[in-house]
What we know:
Helices cover 29% and strands 25% of the residues. It has 377 residues and is α/β, with parallel strands linked by helices.
Amino acid sequence: MDPRRTRTWAEIDLRALHHNLAVVRNHAPNADVLAVVKANAYGHGLTKVCQSLASSVAYFGVAAISEASIIRNALEGMPSPSILIMGETLAEELPKAISRGWHLSVSSITQCQVVIKAAEALGHQANIHLVADTGMGRMGALPADFKALCQHAQAHPVLNVRGLSTHLSSADEDESYTQQQLKEFNQLLNEALAVWSGEDQPLVHVLNSAGIFRKGQTEQRTLVRPGLMLYGCSPETPFQSTLKPVMTVKSRIRLIRELPTGSGISYGHSYITTSPTLVATIGIGYGDGFSRALAHRATTVLIQGQHCSLLGQVTMDQIMVDVTHLQEQATVGDEVVILGSQGGKTIDLRELATKARTIPWEVLTEISGRVCRIHLD
């Protein structure tokens, strides 16, 4: 069955994905790329995205061992970039990660010792990246402890220190604080890199998508970590024009009815028709990732290239929209664009996020598993 005949689907344009990767390289020409593919590649389909990017990037960044396992299986027989687990790894997960050569993020000497114990038991080296906390407050060694962490890790032959990193907390909204973080990290690096004294030095990575746009040319690092920008959305609107959206979400009209004046629509009757209204029921709801917060926020979908307004509350599996202005041309089975373009008009990811009172990252990652992904080469 053609997935496009199902109730709701997402089209993933892999050509746009590679276009956006080229934009990353233009902004950070001297750095390798760690493609952030956690959370099902920001909702775009982890397997297909990694297969498409496998020969084009140096690293994949994931949040969990389970994601690393999916990538490993997907890339069997293909070029295989290194995989960095960007979050904490529990002790019981270490044997699997170390034996498969996955890279671990390490924040403390205590965590180092746990990794050493697991690696020695396996008879394997463990690939690690040491993280400094310069203001994110999520993980990493505090600045006063970072040099000691580097010295401790470098002294153990079972540890292979492959990277030094920090995370920018406000690169898309607070230039002053970002500069403060970069200054502090640079000071830490001057001390930390001296620990390796001419030996093969670790990669250095700090720039996320917003950092790449703002600092890619001036902060010369050996690795950058694009996430949102890979998928076609800039964290800041001034840079959006260079990117191509990768995901389009579509559904179909399931039912069309004319409701008389005074009809309540959806749960709670929060919308009452003020005139005879042609109402189309669309096969998407919050169970698919269409947020309930979009109700009563001037939210629209595209049908026949025209904006059609959401009526009433979002239900789990369906929404209702006003198609009166289409003059009875709308028909059951018509394609409906929830996110993306149709007929020269666009429903923008950032606009949709704003209406839902959230951020683009959440809109993408909340597209649920029952929405079929179609990957277009």
